[in-house]
Amino acid sequence: MTDVDDLIRTELARQHPVPSIDAESVLAAVGDRRGRRRRRRGGLAAVAAAVAVIAATSAVLVAGDGGDDAELATTSADAVPLWPAPPLPDATLTIAQEGSTVAGEAWASAAAAQVDAPTDGAHVLVVVRRGLSDLESIEEMTGLGREDDTISITTEHNDALVSVLGRGLDEATVENVSASVAVGDRLADTTWSVPDGLHQLGRGAAPQPLLGWSASYVSVFEGDGVRVSVETMPGRGDDAPLEVVLLRMAGGALVSTPAGPAVQWRVDDELVVVWRTDEGYWVRLSGRGIDEARLHEIGASLAPVEDATWRASLTDQPE
Amino acid sequence: MTTRDEALRAFVHDDYAPVLRTLTAACGDRGRAEDALQDALAKTWERDADPDSFAAWITVVAMNVLRSGARRRSAEARALERWSRLRAAPAAVADSTGGDLLAGLPRLQREVAALHYLGDLSVVDVARALGVSEGTVKTSLHRARRALRAVLAHEQERTP
């Protein structure tokens, strides 16, 4: 040890004397924190249960407004290779959320603390929407565990819905992710809640169970939009779910967003989904538990809507 | 064999205060340090950490909590800056580093110096606590030592 080290140590010790504490008060405070952590995990368990319900019923949303059965007409899907699909991460979890605001700006931020190692496929999204589905802004953080892993986002709309979401995060990683949402000058509680997608399933058409039958859905929309269609091989009995998420070109990079419903369906179902959204958004198909060879058996079409109106078919209606 | 509860009680009675001092020096704010330390204790209570190394483990977890909070405040400050009507707000969330010896150091150097000089952690342990390489710790410690030496020399010159 050098003289300089001694000097520094002495000066720091002088400036920072060991504080006196009340050990029992500290233990009581820690006990309170343990209680809050248990309650928060209770919320997390509710999320996991809700996600399991989706997978079990293969609920599918045909999103959009303005279409009815009378307008449905037959269409054919473009045969293009399926977008290379990375492994589907774990279900989206809402880390923090503030509901629709009544007035004023909102902002949110998320930060990932040091984790043991960057978690492949895990990312945190801060999403700002207007209403239930219109994407206003989105920021994404990947490679959790890096030094500068913070994101923040601001909206000036008074009906903003701000969410901080995590995908591909296990519980241990989530514990190292902190998030906050504020509306006006009020910092909202950081809470766990049911993923937004569950709420959106009830919007537009009601969720349709697809178990046991095969159907093809296309709705009719006007205006900008994105279409995704999938034709699978019926009768293969593969229960592996697929998921559709919206993507946006952001600085040349693709980012995913839960702004649209994360639709899941069985491989042996046929489905066409049309999302009404802004131009510039694309759609990705992801498969969980499906190998590449199996994916190639699935015909898919991913294309921006070129025409204002899409015609659709509803075939093989359930008994 | 020491139970988890016994080890944590022993930590609070014997090691809580000195660890709190180190964390306070590392972040410059007693309140944030205490918050992080109690959060770390609550987490450690639920895990199978080795009761014999609670102090080291809790220090690591508390530093993670502190650094996470610092990043969040930084992100919030940036967001607040974008609020034209709240341009003055970032000062309210800035670190309250005060006028201590470590106040002028960059964050990493401050943390390294606090853990090494006040917490008596070795270079290896500091690297583990901060999740950085030993080389990074050595470099930061060298720069911190150089800067602190200059500060101390300046203060000695001012002392009659």
Brief account:
The complex is a heterodimer of chains A (319) and B (160). Chain A is α+β, with helices and mostly antiparallel strands.
Low-confidence stretches of chain A: 40-104, 114-118, 184-319
Largest sheet of chain A: 4 strands, antiparallel
Number of strands of chain B: 0
Strand portion of chain B: under 5%
**Helical content band of chain B:** over 70%
**Neighbour order of strands in the largest sheet of chain A:** 1-6-3-4
* Helix content percent band of chain A: 10-25%
Shape of chain A: elongated
Number of strands of chain A: 15
Radius of gyration of chain B: 17 Å
Count of DSSP helices of chain B?
A: 8
Distance separating the two termini of chain A: 84 Å
State the end-to-end distance of chain B: 57 Å
Which pair has the most extensive contact? A-B, 47 and 48 residues
What is the mean predicted local confidence, pLDDT of chain A?
A: 44
Backbone structural class of chain A:
alpha+beta
Class inferred from helices and paired strands of chain B: mainly alpha
Shape of chain B: elongated
For this structure, the quaternary state is heterodimer
Overview of the structural elements:
The complex is a heterodimer of chains A (about 325) and B (about 160). Chain A is of the alpha+beta class. Chain A has helices at about 5-15, 25-55, 170-175, 195-200, 290-295; strands spanning about 95-100, 105-110, 125-130, 135-140, 150-155, 160-165, 175-185, 185, 225-230, 240-250, 255, 265, 270-275, 280-285, 300-305. Chain A has a four-stranded antiparallel β-sheet, with no helix packed on it. The radius of gyration of chain A is 24 Å and the shape is elongated. The termini of chain A are far apart. Chain B is an all-alpha fold and about 160 residues long. Chain B starts with a helix and ends with a helix. At the A-B interface, helix 1, helix 2, strand 2, strand 5 and strand 7 of A face helix 1, helix 2, helix 3, helix 4 and helix 6 of B.
